[in-house]
Amino acid sequence: MILDRQSRINTNDLKTRLDAVGMDRGSFSPEELTEFANLMQVYEGAMYEISTKLEILDSEFQVRFSHDPIHHMERRLKSVNSILGKLKRKTLPVTVSSIKDNLFDVAGIRVICNYRDDVYSVSNYLSAQNDISVLRVKDYIKNPKQNGYRSLHVIYAVPVFLSSGAHYTPVEVQFRTIAMDYWASLEHALRYKTDLPDAKLAEHSQTLLDCARSLQNIETQMQNIHRDINGAPQVEETPKAD
């Protein structure tokens, strides 16, 4: 199952969204607005290319091992607000070229797997395909963040074929298990729940950290059971950047 978290953007939509965030669209020429909309189409195409590859891998696992490693996927394009906000936070020029040169997470896919072995198997098989490149890898499963966050982040470059030729475009893919995902969703909700007292926020943050450690132990035990009853690949190697 694939969930889409974005809608398509055309030039008129882009103008409307720039107005909505208080951006002077007069700083963009009509050509630049068209280029911005075209760039978002390329990011969307790259996102679909990667998700199709993942669907094929999931189907292959079902045929070969009678096991679906991917529970579901979520796709999203960054909103205009998020793109412009990130450029400003990084004190980068607000231009189309700046987006292409500095932002690698405009297109994103979250891959929710059943087990930790599935995370590494799927990510490694995808990384091994010869028409894509691995630009960056951050393994927060083997090296969790201080708050307990765990996930495997890989930025791929995939070719999108247009009339002008192949455009290699980055897509950020986050691989995580079901347990990692529901923990991350709750932590995200807590982080942006600003009306809670500081003491309550600190209490919940500590509880979530304890939960992350408990979930890690439970996942390990369930993984071991799964390994005994299923013939799917057992992989714990992190993908390598090219």
Report what the structure shows.
By secondary structure, the chain is α/β, with parallel strands linked by helices. The chain is 50% helix and 20% strand. The protein contains 7 helices and 6 strands; from the N terminus they run E-H-H-E-H-H-E-H-E-E-E-H-H. The chain has helices at residues 11-20, 30-65, 80-89, 96-102, 116-127, 178-191, 198-229; strands at residues 2-4, 70-77, 107-113, 133-139, 152-162, 165-177. It has a 6-stranded mixed β-sheet. Helix 6 runs antiparallel to helix 7 (198-229). It starts with a strand and ends in a 13-residue tail after the last helix.
Task: Produce a short descriptive summary.
With 242 residues, the chain is an alpha/beta fold.
Individual helix count: 7
Order of helices and strands: EHHEHHEHEEEHH
How many E-type strands?
A: 6
- Structural class call reads alpha/beta
Helical fraction equals 40-55%
Shape, per Cα inertia axes: globular
Question: pLDDT average, as an integer?
Answer: 88
Give the strand order of the largest sheet, numbering strands 1, 2, ... along the chain: 1-2-3-6-5-4
Straight-line distance between termini: 30 Å
In terms of per-residue confidence, which ranges show pLDDT below 50 for 5 or more consecutive residues?
none
**Whole-angstrom Rg:** 20 Å
Largest sheet features: 6 strands, mixed
Relative strand content: 15-25%
